[in-house]
């Protein structure tokens, strides 16, 4: 698969996960440009993925064909305000932030090719379960090529935007918080009836 030019605004955890997913599939990363204001973060990424390019200019990253917004929600809108002059009508923008809707992103940018995705950590080994939503105006051809790239991360599927957070809760956060309880329930279920530690019905 040939990558278009990709700009990542934010070089944190989710960017690292996606770059590793691509690297696992032996996809060249020459066309990837990562922006972050933290030089240590950029140096660490560059060490792990030597073929990427790095910059501290969000405006430069925003000039790529596909731009990923990998920032926390509180700084999303101010960052979009900062890069809006660099984003063309043909740019594809993918936000990984919860809560910030496609409509809000579109209110500041010229492009209508806007998507939201909430990836989970198992994408790092290409076993992710990742819902994605697209704006109604998203170009069908561009959507197809982007979807092909996103599928390298694992199971990727389109959902209504209103359901994004629910999918993330069930597939990622819920197991994180409750796995130890499920594990204990499994252990109890495997114990023989009559054991002093067994809790169940007679």
Could you please describe the fold and organization of this structure?
It contains seven helices and eight strands; from the N terminus they run βαβαβαβαβαββαβα. With 202 residues, the protein is α/β, with parallel strands linked by helices. It has one domain: NAD(P)-binding Rossmann-like Domain (Rossmann fold, 3-Layer(aba) Sandwich). The longest helix is centred in the C-terminal third of the chain and has 27 residues, at 164-190.
Helix-strand blueprint:
Elements: E1 6-9, H1 13-24, E2 32-35, H2 39-48, E3 53-55, H3 58-61, E4 66-69, H4 76-83, E5 92-95, H5 102-106, E6 114-117, E7 128-134, H6 140-150, E8 154-158, H7 164-190
Parallel strand pairs: 1-2, 1-4, 2-3, 4-5, 5-6, 7-8
Antiparallel strand pairs: 6-7
Kindly estimate the percentage of residues that lie in beta strands according to DSSP: 15-25%
Query: How large is the count of helical segments?
Result: 7
- Overall morphology: globular
Main sheet? 8 strands, mixed
Radius of gyration, taken over Cα atoms and rounded to an integer in Å = 20 Å
Summarize model confidence as the mean pLDDT. 87
């Amino acid at each position: 698969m040939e990558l278009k030019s990709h700009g990542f605004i934010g070089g944190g955890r989710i960017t690292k996960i996606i770059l590793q997913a691509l690297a696992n599939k032996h996809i060249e990363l020459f066309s990837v440009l990562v922006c972050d204001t933290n030089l240590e973060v950029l140096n660490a990424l560059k060490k792990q993925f030597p073929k990427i390019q790095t910059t501290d200019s969000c405006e430069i990253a925003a000039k790529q064909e596909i731009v990923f917004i990998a920032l926390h929600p509180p700084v999303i809108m101010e960052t979009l305000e900062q890069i809006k002059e660099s984003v063309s009508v043909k740019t594809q923008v993918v936000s990984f932030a919860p809560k910030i809707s496609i409509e809000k992103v579109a209110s500041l940018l010229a492009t209508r090719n806007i998507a939201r995705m909430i990836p989970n950590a198992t994408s790092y080994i290409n076993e992710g379960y990742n819902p994605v939503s697209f704006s109604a105006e998203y170009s069908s051809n561009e959507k197809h090529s982007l979807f092909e790239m996103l599928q390298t991360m694992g199971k990727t599927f389109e959902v209504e935007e209103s359901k994004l957070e629910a999918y993330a809760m069930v597939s990622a956060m819920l197991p994180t918080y409750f796995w130890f309880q499920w594990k204990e329930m499994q252990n109890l279920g495997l114990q023989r009836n009559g054991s002093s530690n067994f809790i169940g019905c007679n």
